[in-house]
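Run Haloacid dehalogenase-like hydrolase domain-containing protein Sgpp through structure prediction, thanks.
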Amino acid sequence: MTAGEVSEKSKSAFAALAPLEAVLFDVDGTLCDSDPIHHIAFREMLQEIGFNGGVPIDEDFFVQNIAGKHNDDIAAVLFPDDIERGLKFCVDKEAYFRKLVKEKVEPIKGLYKLTKWVEDNGLKRAAVTNAPRPNAELMISTLGLADFFHHVIIGDECEHAKPAPDPYLKALELLNVSKDHTFICEDSVSGIKAGVAAGMPVVGLTTRNPENMLMTANPTLLIENYEDPKLWAVLEDLGKKAGDA
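Sure, done. The structure for Haloacid dehalogenase-like hydrolase domain-containing protein Sgpp is below.
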């Protein structure tokens, strides 16, 4: 499968979800393109402490070592000899990130078209993220979606964060829905792996991460954003099936 087509395998995976009960969304990079804001926060704060000899981290370093990863893992990459310092740094970085979010956060193109479709079809929905709760709730409220989500599940509040399936399994439990009638929207390898491990089809967004990188995690469908005709082809089929049921 390439990002340019909907394979028969993808079509049948979505068709099998009928009747659809729920849609689960990651937050960073899935509701909003927040990676550039994270990149700014990390770049400025790391440069301030002389990381990498004071040379600012570039996009490649950010994608390879930081994007989509849990803060515990980021701390270990950035400060392998002083994890405690790394964890403290990540807490400070999140506070700075929250300041920046209010000025800079933008929804992924077509997001409100999809959230309206979800509401119009009476589906349950949850946000499922490795982000700290204050970040997730700030982004969700800044996007005007505080009343849209029935639950917000945080990786740190589960036994294991993504890429483990625990946060997605917790979402199914809280919403009281079946994995056989739910799909997930994600934008990172870690998140897609979590969704696949939880046994659900995953729509992968190529917001920031390259298509070939996301494909290693085995998404059911890859889209550019929520206006992508490939998404609506499978959703319209699902909508028809809901009408037939």
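The mean pLDDT is 93.
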